Amino acid sequence: METSNTEIDQLAETLMGNCYKSQASKHGLYQSFLFEKEANAKQFFIDVFRFPEVVSVSFDQSL
C-alpha cells in the first residue's frame, strides 16, 4: 500500500514542522521539511520510516 504525501505532511505538522520544498523526479518524490525544535526533527526522522516507500532520510542542521 502506498502512502499519500498528505500522511507524511500530517506527521510533520504533528511535530510542528512543515514541508518547504517538494520535487518530483524519475526516482520518486523528494521533500524537505523544516522543524522549529531539533527534538521534533529527530522524532520525524525516526517515525517517517513507518511508511514503506520512504527509503532515505537525511538530517541537516544548517538551516
Written account of the structure:
- With 63 residues, the chain is α+β, with helices and mostly antiparallel strands.
- The chain has helices at residues 5-14, 38-47, and strands at 17-25, 28-35.
- Strands 1-2 form a two-stranded antiparallel ribbon.
- The longest helix has 10 residues, at 5-14.
Features of the shown structure:
alpha+beta, globular, single chain, 2 strands
Could you provide a short overview of the structure?
The protein is α+β, with helices and mostly antiparallel strands and 63 residues long.
List the helices and strands and how they pair.
Elements (H helix, E strand, L loop, with lengths): L4 H10 L2 E9 L2 E8 L2 H10 L16
Antiparallel strand pairs: 1-2
Major sheet size, sense and barrel closure: 2 strands, antiparallel
Radius of gyration: 11 Å
Mean pLDDT: 87
Indicate the structural class. alpha+beta
Give the overall form.
globular
Helix residue percentage: 25-40%
Which consecutive residue ranges, at least 5 long each, have pLDDT under 50?
A: none
Biggest sheet strand line-up: 1-2
Q: H/E series, N to C? A: HEEH
The domain tally reads 1
Annotation, overall tally of beta strands: 2
Question: What is the beta-strand fraction?
Answer: 25-35%
Task: Give the end-to-end Cα distance, rounded to a whole number of Å.
Answer: 33 Å
The total count of helices amounts to 2
